[in-house]
Amino acid sequence: MSGVLTTVALLKQTFDKYAGADGDKNQMSKKELATMLKAELPGCSEVDEFLKMLDQDGDGSLSFEEFVTFVATFAVLVGSA
Q1: 16 vs 5, 73, 76, CA distance in Å?
Q2: Which of 4, 12, 39, 54 is surrounded by the most beta carbons within 10 Å?
Q3: 45: domain CATH number?
Q4: Angle at the Cα of 46 (from 61 to 5), degrees rounded to 5?
C-alpha cells in the first residue's frame, strides 16, 4: 500500500477509534474530541477552540471530513514550526 493510502487508512482508523462513543460513529462529539486530543496530543487543552474552528457546519461535532481538515491544519502548523 502506498504511503498516501496508508496515511488515509490511519486517519480513518484514528477517527473511528474515538468517534461513536456518544452514539454516532460518523461524528466526533466535543467530548470525543477532548478524549482524542488528550490521548493523541498530550498537553493540548484547547478543545473549544479546535471545535469552533473546525466545525464547518456548526452542528457541534466533527465529521470525518472536518477531522481530516484538523489533521491537515495541524500538520501545516507543526511543519512550519
Answers
A1: 16, 19, 23
A2: 54
A3: 1.10.238.10
A4: 60
